[in-house]
Design a protein that fits this description.
Number of helices: 2
Radius of gyration: 18 Å
Structural class: mainly alpha
Shape: elongated
Distance between the termini: 16 Å
Strand content: under 5%
Number of domains: 1
Length: 84
């Protein structure tokens, strides 16, 4: 549980929240589109859309988190006390 840490700078919190909000809005938009599409095809949206949305949420969340950390590294918002 103590494998590492990241200091909570203002820039980190803002970038993290932006990534989280982007993920939520993207998933809501895709869910709306997907549910309507499955309804038109006569399929139960609960049974068909939830597995896709869950997998997409995992993939998108991981990708956005990786991009956030890469962006923080590029702008120089590094953790100054890593290894202490």
């Amino acid at each position: 549980m103590k494998s590492g840490h990241t200091s909570l700078t203002v820039v980190f919190v803002v970038v993290y929240l932006l990534a989280a909000v982007l993920q939520v809005f993207t998933l809501l938009w895709i869910a709306d589109w997907m549910v309507h599409r499955f309804w038109r095809k006569g399929k139960d949206p609960d049974s068909f859309s939830i597995p896709y949305l869950t997998a997409l949420g995992d993939l998108l969340g991981t990708a956005l988190l990786a991009l956030s950390f890469h962006f923080l590294w590029l702008i120089g918002d590094r953790d100054g006390d890593v290894g202490d």
